[in-house]
Design goal:
Elements lengths: L4 E5 L6 H11 L6 E6 L4 H11 L3 E8 L2 E7 L2
Pfam family, one: TusA
InterPro entries: TusA-like (IPR001455), TusA-like_sf (IPR036868)
Protein name: UPF0033 domain-containing protein
């Protein structure tokens, strides 16, 4: 999946992946996609809830080699 911006949040513990995601998504235009790479397992539920509450769309999430990858479309 193509992304307009990629955020590397690997090695960061909660709440830093969400804090950095919020900052990165604010730099995008509506409709653009942010790809996030994280290793904190708790971020999966946090990102889904954060995206929904902020009016964004979680397009896809996968786990690859212990790295969680998310694609969020800015609302």
């Amino acid at each position: 999946m193509n992304a307009d911006k990629t955020l590397d949040a690997k090695g960061l513990a909660c709440p830093m992946p969400i804090v950095k995601t919020k900052k990165a998504i604010n730099e995008l235009e509506s409709g653009q996609v942010l790809e996030i790479h994280a290793t904190d397992k708790g971020v999966k539920n946090d990102l889904a809830a954060w995206a929904k509450s902020g009016g964004h769309e979680l397009l896809k999430d996968i786990e690859e080699d212990d790295v969680l990858k998310f694609w969020i479309k800015k609302g």
